[in-house]
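Slack export, channel: ligand-projects

TW: morning all. Re-posting the request from yesterday since it got buried. We need the structure predicted with the small molecule present, not the apo form. The ligand is NAP; the SMILES is in the block with the sequence. No rush, but it would help planning for next week.
GE: picking it up
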Amino acid sequence: MSTTTASPLGGKVVAVPGGTGNVGEGIVRAFLKAGATVVVPSRSQGRLDNIVKLIGPELAANLRTVAAGYATFEEADRLAAGIVAEFGHVDHVTASVGGWWAGKALWQTTEDDWRKIFVDVATSHMALARSFVPRLPEDGSYTTIAGFSSQKPYPGAGIVSMQGAAQLMMREVLTAELGGQPRVNDLVLGPVINRSRPGGDPTWLTADQVGEAAVGVARTPSIAGEHVQLATVADLQRERARMAS
Ligand SMILES: NC(=O)c1ccc[n+]([C@@H]2O[C@H](COP(=O)([O-])OP(=O)(O)OC[C@H]3O[C@@H](n4cnc5c(N)ncnc54)[C@H](OP(=O)(O)O)[C@@H]3O)[C@@H](O)[C@H]2O)c1
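GE: finished. pasting the full token output, ligand included:
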């Protein structure tokens, strides 16, 4: 299918694991606005119903929801294979999986905290990458969403920082192993204004602006193997200059 300026990702299929989340909502909306068919999986039918409502009837025409998790290699394989079986292809993935957690020093962290915040989220990212990356076309892209704490220790949120650091290194390894096709990147975000935190410093990005950046990275062939630093709106303005418009 041909692409147009009005619909630059027309005909493309984009999977957004984490699309039900605060940041994921903006990513889903941006890919839909760019004309893609967007597939959002979730462990919760209630969260899927909520994202459809938040997106609204007009844009949601090209939104597909899948009540399925990706907590294990087997679940992620089933998800990726199911999307390819239904749509014939999957072109881009933006994984916005995992959330914030804080309040305990490392030595206070319980085994349950560790499992939920480090093991479960790291396993999901790994499961998604190993299932989707081999199914992407050479001109496709895989992007993970990370936070500032992945590169800088954040006292009281050590296990979030450790999981984020593992995620960034997973992306670096993928880039080294793939040699550039498909492209694999990550967005390293500062705090994000979103539906759960509608107020905030005006220099912070909104979830919709994160979505704009995710679409820009997916569409720009020269952005490959990068930690795209997006702490503030000024960073996005700088990135816009090199992203496909
Ligand atoms: N919010 C911010 O201000 C901010 C700032 C910087 C970076 N980030 C990054 O943005 C990403 C998403 O954050 P968010 O604020 O949107 O989080 P969120 O609202 O809590 O959403 C988390 C998403 O991850 C999915 N998920 C799947 N497996 C999960 C697991 N084992 N544990 C937790 N979530 C799981 C959830 O899907 P289900 O529907 O299945 O629950 C949900 O869609 C994270 O990588 C985070 O580090 C966020």
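GE: first-pass observations. The first strand starts at residue 13 and ends at 15. The beta strands are 13-15, 37-42, 63-67, 92-95, 141-147, 183-189, 192-193, 205-206, 227-230.
TW: perfect, thank you
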